[in-house]
Amino acid sequence: MSELHPGWPTVLTAGAVSLRPPKRRDAREWSRVRMANEEWLAQWEPSSRQSWSARNSRAEYYRTFSRMKSAARIGIMLPFMVVYGDRVVGQMNVSNVVRGALRSCSVGYWIDSTVAGRGITPTALALVIDHCLTEVGLHRVEVDIRPENAASLRVVEKLGLRREGYYERFLDIGGAWRDHVAFAITSEERANLPVLARLSSLPLPPA
């Protein structure tokens, strides 16, 4: 682990869900899953001049992997692959890590449509939040969601995140500036009940 980035690198696990740092050899599977999920994912992702196939090719993964590795090394990002059983089914990135007086970060993610609805995303997000507010030493975690994204809104509802604000025309997605709802949790709000424990009434995703 790095002094610049306590709590990294690491592997987080609950049931059959694991989060681990990306590997160079993930390129083939990452590209395959992304290509197969264009209809499911493209509507929520930043605008790009590249075609879906170009921005999700193995060559593009290698470039993205290099950027993520560099960002993680200097302590401004924690990139994770979401693994279910023994295969990559998504990605969850802790970005905009700020130390000092703020000690905050934001989390973004995507999941393979073939395993959606199995509790994988809430489990993965709970693992990441608990880790950020303990081992990583942050005070606040933010998740920003488009108001049309009902599935992601259900995720933060299950985890008990607090609605904190509404950002108008926040990100350029699908060729237009899209509003987002901001949800957050601080270490004080987590103190008496780890976020993963808030899912205790729901079964962990089976192996």
Question: Would you kindly provide a written description of the structure presented here, covering whatever features stand out?
Answer:
InterPro entries: Acyl_CoA_acyltransferase (IPR016181), GNAT_dom (IPR000182), N-acetyltransferase (IPR051531). Belongs to the acetyltransferase family. RimJ subfamily. This is GNAT family N-acetyltransferase. The protein has helices spanning 27-36, 38-41, 52-55, 58-73, 120-132, 150-159, 187-190, and strands spanning 12-14, 17-20, 78-84, 87-98, 104-111, 140-145, 162-173, 176-186. It has one domain: 3-Layer(aba) Sandwich (Aminopeptidase). It is globular. The two termini are 29 Å apart. Strand 1 and strand 2 (17-20) form a beta hairpin. With 207 residues, the protein is α+β, with helices and mostly antiparallel strands.
Residue-averaged pLDDT: 94
Count the beta strands.
8
Query: Taking strands numbered 1, 2, ... along the chain, how are they ordered across the largest sheet?
Result: 1-2-3-4-5-6-8-7
Number of domains: 1
State the shape. globular
Taken in chain order, the helices and strands follow as EEHHHHEEEHEHEEH
Number of helices: 7
Which regions have little confidence, pLDDT < 50, spanning 5+ residues?
A: none
Helical residues, percent: 25-40%
Domain N-acetyltransferase: 31-188
InterPro entries: Acyl_CoA_acyltransferase (IPR016181), GNAT_dom (IPR000182), N-acetyltransferase (IPR051531)
Family: Belongs to the acetyltransferase family. RimJ subfamily.
Protein name: GNAT family N-acetyltransferase
